[in-house]
Amino acid sequence: MAESDSPSAAPAKDPAGPTEAQVLAFLEANPGFLDRNPDAILHLVMPGAGADRTVVDMRDFLVRRLQEELRDLRDGTDALIQTARVNMSIIKRTHQAVLAVLQGDERGNLGDAVARDLPLLLDVDVAVLAVEEGGILPARSVPLAVLPAGFVDEVAPRNRPIALRARARAEPRLFGAVAPQVASDALARLEPGNGHPPGLLALGSRRSGAFHEDQASDLLSFVARVVEHCVRQWTFGERTTA
């Protein structure tokens, strides 16, 4: 037996940490240490296979596999935490947008609240509330884009009330003078009923691909339903009974 392998040999000592003998004594006194601290395995180097390179060291294989699984688990946990934080931020901003819509409607300037507040709260470049032609618009709707009849069915039909377009068409009827700058948009159909014409809640971004059809649209739909409820209370000239 080599001198370095002898139990009586002086163990190597790290000036910045405990000696090997102290580590060994600690592990002997705490047999459940690795069970409570599995990440410690990531820092271990297992003994090699020896002189015979044809022999496969299964211990080393299993430990390395466990190390990889622990790293993947740690990375996955970090990604999950980050995703949860992003989702919470989006939900919070959505709630703030809904409050801005309700407050704007109470003040009688819903159209202005959508145009002014929603871009900041929803991280977009432009937000528009638009309705098709259908009677005299009430003062509380200003500023509001007026769309030609049939426009809403063209871009957001009833069977697909949310349209997320990675590459938007320049549409001055919807976004006005800033239409050439809108590279991607999200359109939510509004169906107030009670004789009101259909409309759109439109969000636009200068960044191409900011919206795409694989995105979840439940939060946008939620904001749109609140806007729709507010519009339902307006008076558009002569209304028919739903």
TrEMBL record:
Entry's transmembrane regions: none
Organism annotation: Roseospira visakhapatnamensis
InterPro entries from the UniProt entry: DUF484 (IPR007435), GAF-like_dom_sf (IPR029016)
Name this polypeptide is given: DUF484 family protein
